[in-house]
Amino acid sequence: MNSVSKAADRGGAGDGAIGSNPGGRGAIKGAAPQAASIAFDLAIAPPIAKRVEHAVESANGTRNDEYYWLRDDDPKAKRAEVMDYLRAERAYTDAVMAPQAPLRESLVREMRARIKEDDSSVPQYDNGYWYWRRYDAGAEYPVYVRQRGDAAAADENAAIETLLDGVALSREHAFFSIGVMAVSPDNQWLAWTQDITGRRMSTLHIKNLGTGETLADEVAGVLEYAVWANDNRTLYYLKQDPVLLQSGPVYRHVRGTSEAADTLVYDEADKTLFTGLERSASRRWILIRIEGFDVTEVQAIELGAESAAHDPSPPRVILPRTLGVRNYADHLNSRWIFRSNDGAKNFKLVQAPESAPADRTQWHELVPGRSDATLEGFSLFDNVIALQERVDANARVRLLPWGQGSGAAKERVVLADEPAFAMELGNNPDPAAQSVRYSYSSMVTPSSVFDVDLVTGQRTLRKEQVVIGYDRGRYVSERVWAPARDGKKIPVSLAYRIDLFRRDGSAPLALIGYGAYGVCYDPYLSSNRLSLIDRGFVFAIAHVRGGAELGQDWYDDGRLMHKRNTFNDFVDVTDFLVRERYAAGERVFASGGSAGGLLTAAIANEAGAKYRGIALHVPFVDVVTTMLDESIPLTTNEWTQWGDPRERDAYHYLLSYSPYDNIAARDYPPMLITTGLWDSQVQYFEPAKFVARLRAKKTDRNPLLFHINLDAGHGGKSGGSNSSRRRRWSLRFFSPWQELRTSAFQRDEKLPHRSLRLASRSAPFSAGDPTGSEYAADLLGTR
């Protein structure tokens, strides 16, 4: 029997036509794009997946998973019956949304019109050269270039050298992404990684920058790490675990030799931890970072003369691991600098002598820990330490004089004049640089790159993202604080257009959230979000618990046995914005990606009636089954985030909110789910099973749309123009619904539950790229 069937003819279901704008705020003449008469073709019958009973067993209980058959772990091709179902779902979604072709074309024009195609990054100084990337007009991928110079400026008379041509390298690949690029200390050799699968399965290459020749040296199955030793021949890299697709062992490769001759340097025995590689600011050490969410260890390989680079002795442990303690290290001026949470929950900064870095009695505190501020990162310069800290949910930059010759420098805080914003330290690879690079953005301010002079504090704008046609004066950003049901205050960042918004409870609202891994979902301007804001939407970010916007406690209060706070916060923010008349209660839309997709799937189960529509992008929805399966990438690494279901209490707590396990015979709002077939962080079969079970059980007539990109991974399809395509699906899905009254979805008689499924035992966007990598959650190495 076929693995996919069509539901019974729905007869009087109607064509799903949606009338013209009935007087919403988007109807201001000449001020905003207008919604024409748009339809979803809801008369088309969706595909119905077959049911195959399958017991998922554990020591704490056995569950039936009737759609487990949709899982196929083959990294190259999936079974025919699986692909038949996925293609049927994709075809159904395309057909249902086909009447929106005018809106789709309108969005395409709007988004493309805002983009400056021939764009470049700001040159960055490192070791005698200024490096940047350039996008030529119409190109999907950048060209990476450099120009000789000193720390003050590039030499205008020096030739601009091409390092890599992304356009040429990407030809004949459906997916293409450059991971890391590392130039040797003598500036003659380039090592880089590239991924042509979308599953972070990269290959390491080496190029002679003098001749342009790419060497035969090639190492497949690596992660995005490469660090040269000082002999300019030896390269350290990180292999990828072939099953879990995460951190594997550290190897040493000698240029001009085969991979078979490479030497194992370090292999972490605890596979619940990640491994990383970096070079110290002093260029004297290669740092091996072993890291979990609650523990770290720092090891280092000293780089001296050529013979030392080939020393086969194991790395030196600089700071041993202690459960609950996280240390992050760098080295300069013959001293170690550590960002540590040892005795400082929100981190402190200390320096330690080279001779005894782990001896706490010799630590000298540079920046004490604070309860009202989190120290998030630092960059070392010869005479200054640049700090990234977070206060009241906003990240900012602070400069701290340090080292010999620092007398001319003064401690400074880089100020901002907006209520909700984000500053982030940029790439500052050379400690001899005369300025610190940072970026700035808000929900209404285009991303900007600044340099701050380390001595005078003078701030220089190097670049502001060009958003063609954007008038900053027409938009406003706010930071409000929503009360949670347990008394906590939840920060919320929001933006709207001044001439389209009235705080009278009539506006449609697009609300997004994440709340996991201690990741902060910072406010920034997305030119593509303007397509909603220019249609009268308020766009808001709920900084829910599980993120670290308010420090370690905010993070801890949204993970493990406190995870439900994440979902409750999102609902409480929704209620607050409606109650405070920022939005109409019947015109609220929710969206989330990856772990944020878990958030929005959970609220669909628990509070779906509060939302006009919900979008889930690459959503983590089958929590219990995934966290029980140690063969799935990220499972063991993330027991400290979600809980270990081998433990009874954790099992039942996870089961209480796992979206797939809590689908029930109830009404759900209109929903859009997107994924990528080759996603290694949230496997495609999680959302596929979620959609199949939801289709079988839900009792409403609202659209349930599932789009799968057959060429993409977790971050979506590669290529510059796809950044707008990723978002177009959500915009196409939200825009037509926002002017309808709830009764419009329920105007037809509900069909019996059994007619919505096949009673048989016989299977962060766009049509090109729906995976929603717009979301800050979509970090490499996390869900």
Folded structure, characterized:
- The strands form nine sheets. This protein has an eight-stranded mixed sheet with strand order 32-33-35-34-36-37-38-39, with helices on both faces. It has a seven-stranded antiparallel sheet with strand order 9-10-11-12-13-14-15, with no helix packed on it.
- Helix 12 links the parallel strand 38 and strand 39.
- Helix 2 packs across helix 13 and helix 7 packs across helix 8.
- Helix content is 16%, strand content 30%.
- The protein has 13 helices and 39 strands.
- The chain is an alpha+beta fold and 783 residues long.
> Biggest sheet, open or closed, and with what strands and sense?
8 strands, mixed
Count all strands and give the number.
39
Strand order of the largest sheet: 32-33-35-34-36-37-38-39
Proportion of β residues? 25-35%
Question: Helix coverage percent of residues?
Answer: 10-25%
Query: How far apart lie the N and C ends?
Result: 36 Å
**Residue ranges: pLDDT <50 for 5 or more in a row?**
6-38, 305-309, 721-727, 739-782
| Tally of alpha and pi helices | 13
Which structural class should the secondary elements be placed in?
A: alpha+beta
- Averaged pLDDT: 85
Judging from the principal axes of the Cα atoms, what is the shape?
A: globular
The radius of gyration is: 26 Å
